[in-house]
Amino acid sequence: MMYTITLLVLITSTFSYEIISTTGQIKFDANFDNQAELILNSTGLGIGVTPSTNLHVNGNAIVSDQLFVGGSSGVSNLNMNGTIGYGFETVSANATLSSNSIVLVDSSSDNITLYLPLAANVIGRKYTIKKMSTLNELYVIRTSDDLIDLGDRVEFLPNSMGLLSVMSTSDNQWTVLSDSSVDILWTPAQLDTSLWLDASDTSTILAGISDNVYQWSDKSGNDRHVTQGTILDQPVTDSVEINGLNAIDFDGSNSEMNIPPLSLTDGTCMIYVFEPDSDTIYSVVGGSVGTVNGHFDRFSDGKTYYEYFRSARPATTVGLQSTGVQMLAYNADPASAYNIRFSGNATFAGGSFTATSDYATNLDLLGRAKNAGTLLNGKIAEVIVVNSFLSDEDIQRIEGYLAHKWGLEGDLAAEHPYKSVAP
Fold first, then answer.
1. Distance of CA 8 to the CA centre of its chain
2. In whole angstroms, what is the distance from residue 229 CA to residue 258 CA?
């Protein structure tokens, strides 16, 4: 019996297919729910979103090996060739930190408190916090039972700026990666000074070939530069020091300098550091007046201070020494009251006066008053004048600044806030 076997041979060929879009984009609906999980168009590839760039991912992405940005070489998981841009936020009020890793804190108006989120919710998150102002305080505080290292907060105090970097490393732990608080020493530049002369800043002193000073430049920004055009009347620089810093030396017979007239009708605070070489009658500053002698101050016998500015020449024993570095502050309101402080102590706590044209209202001389016989034989280190009545807090800041700079901190009272440390 014969059988016939028919073999059906199927021969297949390789075909090429093109996927052509008639709408300008190709959508892939993997879940068959009429919602495209992947979209390819002329802009790029979008995963979970219509792309707005070459690759646009809305959601999480995992790179199991290496990612290259800006190049094609590198040995790390993330290889960056070029610059990196970060998002940041600036805060000027209390806030709880959220999605911005870099936080710039403006504390110029008030104390600021920043609260970290719960560490357990953001493990691995890092915050970099920068205090941008020396004013007021910044507190970075934990939430709930979290710890910041072993504490509950990090503080940045007034007169400091700094950078804090923290990262959540476990369920209730924020770890400080770096804390670079920087103390910024207070200076009179933080006040609205009307005149500021600083002999230690030799860049402000213009002198001739014999070190005779013809200009002592004003650091207040008001360009009230103190000058003397007559060589014989010029004081000398680079010949004397106070606490290792340059001072201006007045000879007691000719030396004086002229200040562009400075009206002080809105009140006055004047603080200066000087060193007399004798206890003869002298003045450090002088001013324009009506019928009175024209001092802003007058010293005699190494002890007594006469104030000629807005009062009827009271004699105040302030404890001045015949020689030695000394600091005196005079503070008056525009109309009726004043006080005197010597070496940071309220020597003459308060007085009253009647403001009339008889008393000096314009500062215009340094090293002498208007009348004869009041030339200073000694050194002037620094003069600070503010055209307003200052608070005790501001005066104490100036005193602390001057005392620690010129070696007078030992003269400050034990209760002075800047006895041990400069502001």
1. 92
2. 9
Round the average pLDDT of the chain to a whole number and report it: 83
* CA separation for the pair 268, 313 (Å, rounded): 17
Q: Which residues contact 58 (CB under 8 A, 6 or more apart)?
A: 46, 47, 48, 49
Domain positions in the chain? 25-57, 88-183, 188-411
What's the rounded Cα separation, in Å, for the pair 169 and 402? 46
pLDDT band (50, 70, 90) for residue 7: very low
Q: How far apart are CA 89 and CA 79, in angstroms?
A: 26
- pTM, rounded to two decimals: 0.62
Query: Could you tell me if 236 and 248 are in contact, meaning their C-beta atoms sit under 8 angstroms apart?
Result: yes
The fold of the 88-183 domain, in CATH, is Jelly Rolls (2.60.120)
CA 250/CA 267 separation, integer angstroms: 28
Do strands 205-207 and 285-288 pair parallel, antiparallel, or not at all (unpaired)?
Answer: unpaired
C-beta separation of 392 from 203 below 8 A: no
Contacts 24+ apart (CB under 8 A), 393-396: 394/191, 394/269, 395/269, 395/271, 395/329, 395/331, 395/341, 396/344, 396/423
Outline where DSSP puts E strands in 234-300.
236-242, 245-251, 257-263, 268-276, 285-288, 298-300
Give the whole-angstrom CA distance, residue 423 versus residue 362: 30
Arch. (CATH architecture) of 188-411: Sandwich (2.60)
Is the separation of the CB atoms in 267 and 388 below 8 Å?
yes
Other Cβ atoms within 10 Å of 107 Cβ, number: 21
Q: Which of 105, 185, 110 is nearest to 140 (CA)?
A: 105
Q: How far is 411 from 399, CA to CA, in rounded Å? A: 11
Are both 88-183 and 188-411 of the same fold? yes
Q: Name the residue with tokens 């002193």.
A: 205
**Tens digit of each residue's pLDDT (9 = 90 or more) over 87-107:** 899 999 999 998 889 999 999
What are the residues facing 138 on neighbouring strands? 112, 156
